[in-house]
Every structure is written in structure tokens, then in C-alpha cells.
Amino acid sequence: MAKLDERIGFIGGGNMAFAIGSGLVARGIIKPSQVLVSGPHIENLEKWRIIGATTTEENGEVVTKSDIIFLCVKPHMLTTVASQIKSSVVATTREKDKVFVSVLAGVTLAQLAVSFDFMTTLKMVRTLPNTPMQVGEGCTIYSPGSYVTQHDLEKVDLLLNSLGLAQQVPEKMINAIGAVTGCGPAYVYTVIEALADGGVKQGIPRQMAIQFAAQTLLGAAKTVLQTGKHPAVLRDEVCSPGGTTIHGVHELERGGLRNALINAVEKATERSEQLGKQS
User: Fold this and answer.
1) Which reactions appear under catalytic activity for this entry (predicted)?
2) Are residue 141 and residue 195 in the same domain, yes or no?
3) Is the residue at 176 inside a domain?
4) 165 and 232: one domain?
5) Are residues 162 and 194 in the same domain?
6) With contact defined as beta carbons under 8 Å apart, do 35 and 62 qualify?
7) What is the Cα–Cα distance from 226 to 177, expressed in whole angstroms?
8) pLDDT, position 94
9) Which residues are annotated as a binding site for NADP(+)?
10) CA-derived radius of gyration, the chain
11) Binding annotation for NADPH
């Protein structure tokens, strides 16, 4: 596995930032000493210090001392954060060498450029990662801004692909894909919990039911990826005529599972677009 020498900064140290930072450290892509993270309340960054990262309350310090900076704040905080780091960017002579990676849901590259208009050659990569990055099974999509070089993109791609699957996509697709990949883990956790509840109802101990349900989804997902077969084909292979599975699938259809998941993706896409307009 390739390693990076660059210092990686995080403006905002919440769950997504920690999933990325801790994942990179755990995979050996970077050392803890290469990580610098900022947050408004230093006491909330204790988990970062536990893994050996440096913490600060100053967003400007992250920009000054880092080479690749992940923006991991809420979309409505964008303008405030940009104003906070403006003086640090203006003061540094290395502006053109710094690469910013945005994980702000719904915020476009054009909107980011407006907020960072004090940077004449803003190198911004818009991404949408997901929390399974912390266990090396993330799914991230990204789109680079106009000033991002191929060399810059190779570094970002290395960081993101080291934590799962990462792929460059047209920016216009990010909100829709993110409604599947970014929000999808929450949908899947709900399915795992529901399957486990069903097992508990039938007398299976809770922890055992959760473990079996989670492993079942993991195995099914790997089967889709490794065989390349359509999910419907794989489902039909499990459904024996008159068997238990087809009876269960019938109940899922009657309960509207498919319709509910499609609607969830649609609503999440719409919300992502709304968040972008509010930033």
C-alpha cells in the first residue's frame, strides 16, 4: 500500500472526518503525526488525540500547516469557515500547492469557489464519502475543480481508494449517487436491525441475530460485486419454487420495501440539493 508524506488537515472533526482520518492512519497511508484537525470545542476532539493526531481550535492553523485539507463542516458553516481561514491563506506563500477536499453535502464547486474567492487558483475537489471508510470499505465519489492538476488528483484518489472504492464522476451526478452511497449505510443498518429483530422474535439471542444479519448482508454484497450478476438474478437463484425465501420475498413486496428504498434515495437527493441552496 502506497504512503503519502503530505500533512493532512481536517477542518471539522466530526464523524465523517474521523472516519476518514482514523481510516487512513489504520491503513498506514499516513502517520498520526501527519494529521491536524480543528474544531470549535477542543474537548470534543479527544478521540483524535487518542489516535495520535494534533488538535487545535484554529481553522487557520490547519490551512497553514497542512498540504491536503478536508472541509468537514456542515454546509451552512461554509461562509463562516471561509472567512476564518482567509487571512491564513492570504498570508501563506504556498496557496497554489494546497488542495482542499470538500465533503459538504449539496455544495457545488461553483458555490465553493464563490466562498473561497480570495484564492486565485483554488484547488478544490468535491467529494461525497461514507462512514464505512473507517473499516476500509468506504464508497466515495469525487469531482475536481478546474485548477486541480492530475498530480493532485492522484494523491486524493490514493487517499480515498485506500479506504474502499472511490471513483471520479461528473459533478451533476454527485447528489443522486450520494443519496445511495452516502445515505445508504443508514438504510442498510436499518435493514440489519430489522432482520435481527425478526430473528429475536423467533428466539435467536440478540447479539447472535445481529452478527448473522450483518454477515449475511456483507456476503450478499460481495457476491454482487465479485460475480457481476444482476441482483435480481442472484435473488432468483435463492428463491426455490415453493420454498421459504420466495414466501419471505413476497412479504417484502407486500410491505413495500422496494418502494420505500427508492423513495428514500429520491428524498435524500432532494434534500442534498436543498442544503446546497441554503449554504
Assistant:
1) L-proline + NAD(+) = (S)-1-pyrroline-5-carboxylate + NADH + 2 H(+); L-proline + NADP(+) = (S)-1-pyrroline-5-carboxylate + NADPH + 2 H(+)
2) no
3) no
4) no
5) no
6) no
7) 21
8) 60
9) 11-16
10) 21
11) 59
For residues 72 and 45, is the Cβ–Cβ distance under 8 A? Answer: no
Q: Known binding site: residues?
A: 11-16, 59
pLDDT at 264: 96
Task: Give CA–CA dist 134/77, Å, rounded.
Answer: 24
- Give the Cα separation of 53 and 37 in Å (integer): 7
Sign for the CA dihedral angle at 95, 96, 99, 105 comes to positive
Collapsing DSSP to helix, strand or coil, 126 comes out as strand
What type of residue is 261?
Answer: L
pLDDT at residue 279, as a whole number: 60
Instruction: Label residue 171 exposed, middle or buried (CB < 10 Å: 0-12, 13-18, 19+).
Output: middle
Rounded to 10 degrees, the C-alpha dihedral 90/94/95/101 comes to -130
> Is 3 inside any structural domain?
no
Domain housing 262: 184-278
- pTM metric for this prediction: 0.86
Cell 440489519 -> residue? 192
CB count within 10 Å of CB 190 equals 13
Low-confidence ranges of the chain (pLDDT < 50): none
pLDDT reported for residue 91: 59
Query: What does the pLDDT read at residue 210?
Result: 98
pLDDT tens profile 129-174: 998 988 889 999 999 999 999 999 999 999 999 999 999 999 999 9
